Amino acid sequence: MYGVLVIGAPGSGKSTFVSGLSDMFTQELITVEEVMDRLDLGPNGALKYCIETLCENKDWLLQKIMDNKDTYIVIDCPGQVELYKSEGELWKVIRHLEKAGIRLCALHLSDSLYCNDPAKFISVALSTLATMVTMEMPQVNILSKADLFSDAGTFDLEFFQWLPDPSKLSDFLNDVPGLEQYKKLNTAICEVISSYDLLSFVPLNVQNKESMLHVIHLADRANGFSLTEQGDLRDLVFNI
Ligand SMILES: Nc1nc2c(ncn2[C@@H]2O[C@H](COP(=O)(O)OP(=O)(O)O)[C@@H](O)[C@H]2O)c(=O)[nH]1
Ligand SMILES: [Mg+2]
């Protein structure tokens, strides 16, 4: 079975994207609202409690997924970045599903609004990179709400897609009065991004069918689903 995990900061457009793909919703095990009410917790504490409960019930989740064989799974994840840590509950749930043969990839959404500000974009790039490294699964990075992107800012959208030279962004930061003193730090941060050389982004506008299809196609390639439709991988190799 194949599927995608839709992740990214709150408000980045995860639920909108997921609802464009499917109209099914499962909140059978536990909900944040219920936990907030019953245990008198705030939204973040309740979310942590829910993820811990899900982790304790990962066999239940696996069974639910297996009951729907031949279904493509789309999981709308919470946006709190603290959930995406190595060996954390979500990480354990994903490893559990992978072990059972479910091939997942992550679609990481970031709001393209942040491209208009180099400091914000650097922080988006760092958190995207951190998720790639900690979650240890194929990841497609999306710049959501591309229809709202305006290139009146620093660079056009193409620059952010391939991120050829993040040090260009730190040049902008160094020009901001008061930030000169952080020049070395900014340069070092940008060097982290370029030395990993893992980041690229794909724009997404959920109102545009082609844009949605393009992102789905990339996810299918990342989790291997597209290979199943084209037959055995060895056929592909031998036919070249
Ligand atoms: N213009 C535009 N707005 C979008 C797009 N995707 C999501 N939004 C809006 O962004 C807001 C947050 O989206 P939501 O899906 O709730 O974000 P989530 O917190 O990541 O699940 C909502 O008001 C959506 O209507 C998009 O592609 N274009
Ligand atoms: Mg949401």
From TrEMBL:
Keyword Cell membrane applies: no
A molecular function (GO) term: GTPase activity
Domain of life: Eukaryota
A single cellular component GO annotation: cytoplasm
Keyword line: GTP-binding, Hydrolase, Nucleotide-binding
Pfam families: ATP_bind_1
Quaternary data: Binds to RNA polymerase II (RNAPII).
Similarity comment: Belongs to the GPN-loop GTPase family.
Function noted in UniProt: Small GTPase required for proper localization of RNA polymerase II and III (RNAPII and RNAPIII). May act at an RNAP assembly step prior to nuclear import.
Protein name: GPN-loop GTPase 2
Organism: Diploscapter pachys
